[in-house]
Automatic annotation (TrEMBL):
Organism: Rotaria magnacalcarata
Claim: Methyltransferase is one of the keywords in the record: no
Protein name: NmrA/HSCARG family protein
UniProt-listed Gene3D superfamilies: NAD(P)-binding Rossmann-like Domain
SUPFAM superfamilies in UniProt: NAD(P)-binding Rossmann-fold domains
PANTHER family associated with the record: NITROGEN METABOLITE REPRESSION PROTEIN NMRA FAMILY MEMBER, NMRA LIKE REDOX SENSOR 1-RELATED
Keyword tags: NADP
Species lineage: Eukaryota, Metazoa, Spiralia, Gnathifera, Rotifera
Amino acid sequence: GQDICMCGEAIQFSDVAKVFTKVTGVPASVKTLTEAEYRLGMQFAPKFIQDEFLAMFQWFQEYGYYGKDKDWTTGKQLTGLNTFEQWLKKNGWKGQ
């Protein structure tokens, strides 16, 4: 009768870039798009699809994937999933 949230870690995009650069030696950066830039990049998709994706990303930004104030400790104890840094080191992925 309880929700158990699981993921290797909840990590900000800016931290993904830092960890990627640290582990691979390949420079990485993050750019947050304005709504206009996002829509320009998604112009191949109908407006209602753009709107749905935008609403989803805004939800994630405000509430996170599972919602606000979720307890991640049980999921981490049960799974032993990798952090992003551990995953990069184990797989040797360099962004190609």
